[in-house]
Design a protein that fits this description.
97 residues, alpha+beta, 3-stranded mixed beta sheet, elongated
Length: 97
């Protein structure tokens, strides 16, 4: 499609607005958190009590020491898969509590 230089699609305008307001990163962080169950499965999701991102670190509160230990051993792979899911490097580390 051809768009004159001063015109853009509605989707492009929304993305530009979100980026200008600094909200695009927050939306991607939310998408990463929402992909936790899809990436790691229902069993891990059930053992997850809380999850948030701060300073490019994903903090995951778990209610199972067995699951915590298993995830700790797979940590770098989990970081890679979650970042690929959202299409950019949003997290550099994971802390399991």
């Amino acid at each position: 499609m051809y768009y004159p230089k001063n015109e853009m699609t509605l989707g492009e305008a929304i993305r530009a607005y979100l980026k200008a307001m600094g909200l695009d990163k927050k939306l991607k962080e939310k998408a990463l958190i929402n992909s936790w169950e899809e990436v790691l499965g229902k069993g891990v999701a059930k053992a997850t009590a809380g999850i948030y991102i701060q300073n490019q670190v994903l903090f995951v509160q778990l209610n199972s020491s067995v699951v915590r230990h298993q995830l700790q051993m797979m940590k770098s792979g989990i970081v890679d898969v979650l970042n690929k899911k959202v299409g950019e490097v949003l997290i550099k580390d994971i802390v399991f509590k």
